[in-house]
Amino acid sequence: MNPLETRGKSRILLWVLLAAAIIMYGFPFLYLLLTSFKPPLDAIAVPPSVWPETWTLDNYVSALTREGVPAALINSVVTAVTSTVLSLVLAVPAAYAITRFRTPSGRVFIVAALVTRMVPTIAVGAPLIEVMRNLGLTDTSFGLALAHTTISLPLSIWLMASFFEAVPDELSEAAEVDGCNRLQAMWRVVLPVVSGGLAVTAIFAFLASWNEFLFALLLTSVRAQTTPVVIANFQSQFGLDWGGMTALAAVYSIPVILLTLFLQRQIVAGLTLGAVKG
Q1: pLDDT value of residue 195
Q2: pLDDT over 60 at 278, yes or no
Q3: Cα(124)–Cα(115) distance, rounded to whole angstroms?
Q4: What is the reported pTM?
Q5: Which domains does the chain have, with CATH numbers?
Q6: Least CB-packed of 63, 70, 128, 270 within 10 Å?
Q7: DSSP alpha helices (H): ranges in 36-68?
């Protein structure tokens, strides 16, 4: 067979598999979005229909005006932003020190960070409840952000360490020769180079907090309750309020989508950082 024909068929097969993967991944969200525009009775109809027969915004109005929903949205933003900032503030200097000093203790530390990432969330849930209660941080956004940081910090350290590894040591050494100390060299020279990697790490840290459910369920009750917990508690006289749940879930997805689109250039730059050396 002609090599060009073989390559063409392989490319077609690759595109078919890619399209199938996108459809399988995107269909649940598309179904959620379409369900959010259905009347309440159509949303629970059996058998279900994918396309709404009647389009309505009633689900969005009832979901967003429901008691506790606006406060939960604000709590989610505050908690996710706080957790992201804490993760970056702790992960950046830790990853920089590990990659620049390359000491045995640094290697042990980064492996230990990976091991903590593998621990199931439920395993540390009960101890965290007691810790937060003793610190007086139960049912507070800051306490929940601290808990979320335990999830995102190990991954943030690993990501930033991989990005720092792609930066030549000569860059920071030149900055130190010009009068910068190590911290200034990291802040003024190295961080601007890995700004794409910083954006990628921030996205993952933000998502880890934004999508987290278990800690939010265990550590909050009223004041600091986040949107995932509120969505899970949607009830109606027919059982679960699928229309309201899907409407609020669709609204809850908007900030992440906008954030990803806003940082897409930095994300692409971060993902390709270090791919070409020379």
Answers
A1: 83
A2: no
A3: 13
A4: 0.86
A5: 3-60 (no CATH), 67-271 (1.10.3720.10)
A6: 70
A7: 40-43, 58-64
